[in-house]
Prior knowledge:
B: mainly beta
Amino acid sequence: DADVTQTPRNRITKTGKRIMLECSQTKGHDRMYWYRQDPGLGLRLIYYSFDVKDINKGEISDGYSVSRQAQAKFSLSLESAIPNQTALYFCATSDLDRATYTDTQYFGPGTRLTVL
Amino acid sequence: AQSVTQLDSHVSVSEGTPVLLRCNYSSSYSPSLFWYVQHPNKGLQLLLKYTSAATLVKGINGFEAEFKKSETSFHLTKPSAHMSDAAEYFCVVSLTGANNLFFGTGTRLTVIP
């Protein structure tokens, strides 16, 4: 979805390096998410944020941190990258539809991260 | 607790034949159900969603899915496969009103010319 952008799209780094992945959205949504995708495992939630002052851990937050700089920006950091953090990382946004009480998420194009 | 099982990791069909991608879910409460598609080197695109309204849900590109509570299923179908349908498909469940999505492991659809 072009309304959700991620930078960089590809990154190769070395073990121990600090890495930041950035996500921006123009959908005006309050809620933002970071997932990682590994082959055969689907997507797993790392962190999520319901607004600028709200940050929550997801299923697999160890080794990661996040920053919600503004409603439109949500960054994911790997403080000291390790090889098993090699994965495809997706940012997503959502807003609660109060008519159906459904939270539908819209995904960015992904960042492919390789840690050597 | 919520979970999703996609019954086939890989489905192969001929162009012009029907597509069936199977999904069973487990949810303690009223679920919201989604199908997303991921084309190679692309992000996830929402195909359709079920939100406790009509049990037969129509999505984009001719896909549809039927919510069957008695069978805890939400299978994705399309009457006639097109080459452009070749992709990975994810069935996803969440509690209605909740933010947490639970993803299946995906089904890779191959379309044979």
